[in-house]
Amino acid sequence: MLKAEELKLVSEWDKTFPKSEKVDHEKVTFVNRYGITLVADLYKPKNAFGKYPAIAVSGPFGAVKEQCSGLYAQTMAETVLDVCHL
């Protein structure tokens, strides 16, 4: 099992849809309750501060996170939500 510090996360845009200028995007990692390190895309509204709603989005089985469900996450982040896309 890889530890978070051993992961090589890309910083360039790796999605199949255009990047929105209305949101900030970053790769994040976290360890679940089973000790498995997961990688997610975090979308935040640009220039937002303070507390605001957040949701986690995941694609259906067989989905590729760089495709449609990531676009949904980005679009929701444009409406002042924090979105963690798994």
Question: Residue-averaged pLDDT, rounded?
Answer: 79
Straight-line N-to-C gap: 18 Å
Please, how many domains?
Answer: 1
Helix content: 10-25%
Largest sheet: 4 strands, mixed
Strand order of the largest sheet: 1-2-4-3
Beta-strand fraction estimate: 25-35%
Order of helices and strands: EEEHE
Radius of gyration over all CA atoms, rounded: 13 Å
The low-confidence parts are none
Overall SS class: mainly beta
Number of strands: 4
Helical segment tally? 1
- The best one-word shape is globular
Please explain how this structure is put together:
- With 86 residues, the chain is mainly beta.
- It has one domain.
- It has 1 helix and 4 strands, in the order βββαβ.
- The protein has one helix at residues 68-77; strands at residues 23-31, 37-45, 54-57, 82-85.
- Strands 1-2-4-3 form a 4-stranded mixed β-sheet, covered by helices on one side.
- Helix 1 links the parallel strand 3 (54-57) and strand 4 (82-85).
